[in-house]
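Listing S7. Sequence submitted for prediction.
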Amino acid sequence: MLSEAEIIALIREMAPGYVPGAEVQIGDDAAAFHITGDLVLLTTDSIYEGVHFNIPPFHISDVGWKVMAAGVSDIAAMGGEPNCALLSLALHEPPGEGDVRSLIGGVLEMLSSCNCSLIGGDVCRSAGGLALTATVAGTPPPGGPVLRSGAKKGDVIGITGSIGESAAGLHVLKLGSDDLRARYPRVVEAHLRPKPKVKAGALLASCGASAMEDVSDGLAADLRHICDESGLGCELDARLVPLADDLRALAAEVGEDPLDWALAGGEDYELLFTAPPGSFDEAVKCLVDHGTPACRLGVMRPAAEGRVMVKDSGERVDLEGVGYDHFA
């Protein structure tokens, strides 16, 4: 079993010895990092054993990946570029070297996929299970960060990729079915190792997106966040919500509504965005040309018209209260 000093030494050994921009790295009281420009994007995310994950079915390397993915996705949702990260690690019991290597391996694998570097953090003991907090710093896009508050009445609502997979993957893991896990590997992977859309965020910022947010609490909740900050309502077309074929097949097999996974599941980390009607198609084309599918979902309305989804039948459903809430 490793001591605190040995854990830090091992993390320091595993992290790259040279990180561009880092003047002081792991091992001192604080890290020092040179970031071009005056404006820095900063975000922090925490995940806790028994709340956000359990081991098993998570592998400890997946936990390291997941906490960093959440922070990186926040930077992507501003149109920014992640540069460096800090990790706070709390463990209930002294870990073995293999566990530390697996955990930090997941952290470093995720960060290396978007050219972000681990440059410091903290290690301590927890009264409960494993807990991790990631802090990620990044640079905003040239035109400034894309905010939730930028949407205007009449803006078109769009989303990258397809959604609901993470919630579907969690459903499979909770069922504990090896057969389902083998037949629906993509949705399980979407939950264990979500992939932030860093390139898509930068493209949307350059193509005139007026507001943006990553889908972390479910489509309904995250769209409400944009409505709240922009002082608007919205109308979502249920027929346009992008649901993958394997998601639909899984939902039919286990007796669930795939739309529920999309609206309330969360942790998809796709990008929900708005854009003026005149530039929306251009933004979608730009994304598609760079390998990221995207589609229209609906339109931003005056606040007095509420936040609603129109179903296939024409029924208008209130989106209030739908989505993940830690304390609901």
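Caption to Listing S7: primary sequence and predicted structure tokens for the chain studied. The mean pLDDT is 92. The chain has two domains: 4-139, 148-318.
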